[in-house]
Each structure stands twice: as C-alpha cells, then as structure tokens.
C-alpha cells in the first residue's frame, strides 16, 4: 500500500488517558472495520512513568472505515476523557517548520511559498519612497509654540 493510501486509512486519536492500551483502542475501534495497526508513541523522556504521550494512531484496512470511525468517535468519551478523533496528517520532517533547528527563511518550503522577485521588490520600494515624499511633516509650523498655555497678549 502506498504511503498516501495508507495515510487515508489512518486516524489520529488524542486526549487519551494513561490507562488506555493498544488492546483498549483495538476494542474501541473494531466496530468500524478491520484494524490493521495501532501505534501509541512513547514519551520523549525514557525515565517518565507515562506509558504513552496521550495520543495514538489507528490504521484501518479501508479509508471508508477510517471516515466512519472519525464521524462516530470524535468527541466521545474513553476512560472518562473526551477524545479527539481526526484524519492523520503526514509526519513532518524534523528540519522543517516550527521547532526546527534551521531558520524558517532558510527552509526550502518557505522560499518556494514566500519568495518575491527582484522586480516586485523594487516596485514596492519605489512606491513606498513616493508615498513618504508626499507626506507632510506633522511638526511643520510649530516653531514658536514652545510655551504651554494661552498666548500672552
């Protein structure tokens, strides 16, 4: 199965209690179709007493089953907690987006989206220079108003 097709069959399940296990998720989602795989990511800190990070992924055999599970389970309660069920998103690379060790403007995707041609940049600078030249100095004509209060007669 291609990665794109596999992603359509995978759902994200968030807001999980620490008591939830893979077996619990399998039992909760099997009514919607054949469950192919379940993943509960482990905590980043190995010394943590948590069994998972509070979310997981459930992969179904068919995309229709995944959609059915999202429609029926989003906002439902599992172990006393309201869970969030949504379509899974592709995993981002660690060197892209926020949280990356590379500056956002040095990333390939940023330049492709926000790059401005030299011609457009020059046109913008000229327009701003023209607008600044036309504005009148707001301090003009206030030379002899250095004393507060009414004018002496």
From TrEMBL:
User: Sorted alphabetically, which keywords does the UniProt record give?
Assistant: RNA-binding
Question: Pfam families under this entry?
Answer: RRM_1 (PF00076)
Q: Source species, please?
A: Aspergillus aculeatus (strain ATCC 16872 / CBS 172.66 / WB 5094)
Q: What is this protein called?
A: RRM domain-containing protein
PROSITE patterns in the record = RRM
Could you tell me which residue ranges the RRM domain spans? 9-90
- PANTHER family from the entry? ATPASE E1 (PTHR48037), RRM DOMAIN-CONTAINING PROTEIN (PTHR48037:SF1)
Organism's domain of life?
Answer: Eukaryota
């Amino acid at each position: 199965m291609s990665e794109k097709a596999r992603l359509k069959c995978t759902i994200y399940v968030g807001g999980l209690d620490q008591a939830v296990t893979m077996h619990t998720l399998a039992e909760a989602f099997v009514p919607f179709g054949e469950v192919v795989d379940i993943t509960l990511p482990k905590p980043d800190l190995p010394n943590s007493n948590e069994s998972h990070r509070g979310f997981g992924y459930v992969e179904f055999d068919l995309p229709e089953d995944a959609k059915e599970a999202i429609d029926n389970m989003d906002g439902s309660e599992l172990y006393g907690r309201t869970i969030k069920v949504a379509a899974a998103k592709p995993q981002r690379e660690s060197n892209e987006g926020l949280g990356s060790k590379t500056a956002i403007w040095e990333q390939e995707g940023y330049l492709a989206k926000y790059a401005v041609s030299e011609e457009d940049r020059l046109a913008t600078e000229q327009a701003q220079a023209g607008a600044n030249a036309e504005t009148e100095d707001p301090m003009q004509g206030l030379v002899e108003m250095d004393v507060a209060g009414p004018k002496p007669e």
